[in-house]
Amino acid sequence: MPLFPTAEQLAIIRLALIQDPINKLPSKGGAPMTAFKPSLQDLAFLDRALALAKSSAQNDGGPFGALVVQDGHVLAESNNRVTAHHDPTAHAEVEAIRAACRSLGHHQLHGCTLYSSCEPCPMCLGAIYWARPERVLFASTRQEAAAAGFDDAMIYEELDLPGEQRGIPCHWVNRPQQSGVWEAWQLNRNRHSY
After folding, report:
1. For the chain: N or C, fewer Cβ within 10 A?
2. Catalytic site residue from 8, 77, 93, 134
3. For 156, left (φ over 0), alpha (ψ -120 to 50), or beta?
4. What's the rounded Cα separation, in Å, for the pair 50 and 60?
5. Is the predicted pLDDT of residue 43 greater than 90, yes or no?
6. Ramachandran region, residue 101 (left: φ > 0; alpha: ψ -120 to 50; beta: rest)
7. How distant, in Å, are the alpha carbons of 49, 86, 111, 125 from that of 132?
8. 8 is catalytic
């Protein structure tokens, strides 16, 4: 069996999603997502994210693309640069968020939309929540990504486990000076809360 689904297999997956009688998209481990009715502008921006993803897949990156848009203007766009930059955090969404925040001169993306070629992974989803865009639209589901070899299911499962039971154990170590860090943050009158 090939590692990646054929174009015909992906077409069958997409057709099943479209023909679903209750108009729900599958969501492993959670409630189904309701299909969204995008505007023509949304479709154009999603097509751009897909073009970035395809170009990346054909060159030096993973098959993912993303852009951040505010008031109909692209603030930033990126493809996946994990292998090109030797950086496991250089996902398309994270790279686009970083560039958009630099462009705005702010660490949050209020009033922005993030368009992604694929449903964000757990790391990207965390970055998205910290950046606080108004909404996120994506073209492919995580199930389609899993069929192509990018399966995040293990990460979602790991998050539900106690730290010491995870595949990469996470242990809390009590240090007396840890409270000083939080105290310094609370006392800093120049801090920028986020």
Report:
1. N
2. 93
3. alpha
4. 16
5. yes
6. alpha
7. 19, 27, 9, 10
8. no
Own/partner long-range contacts of 8-14 (Cβ < 8 Å, ≥24 apart) = 9/147, 10/144, 10/147, 13/143, 13/144, 13/147
102 vs 120: CA distance, rounded Å: 21
Q: Give the 3-state DSSP-derived string for 101-133, with helices as H, strands as E and coil as C.
A: HHHHCCCCCCCEEEEEEECCCHHHHHHHHHHCC
What is residue 164's DSSP assignment? G
Q: What confidence tens digit (pLDDT) does each residue in 12-41 have?
A: 545 444 444 334 455 545 555 677 789 999
Q: What is the pLDDT of residue 33?
A: 66
Q: Which pLDDT belongs to residue 146?
A: 93
CA gap 123, 170 in Å, rounded:
17
For 150-189, the pLDDT digits (tens) are 989 999 899 999 999 999 999 999 998 988 999 999 999 9
Residues paired with residue 152 on neighbouring β-strands, in sequence order:
none
pLDDT digits (tens, 9 = 90+) for 62-99: 999 999 999 999 999 999 999 999 999 999 999 999 99
72, two tokens: 């109909």
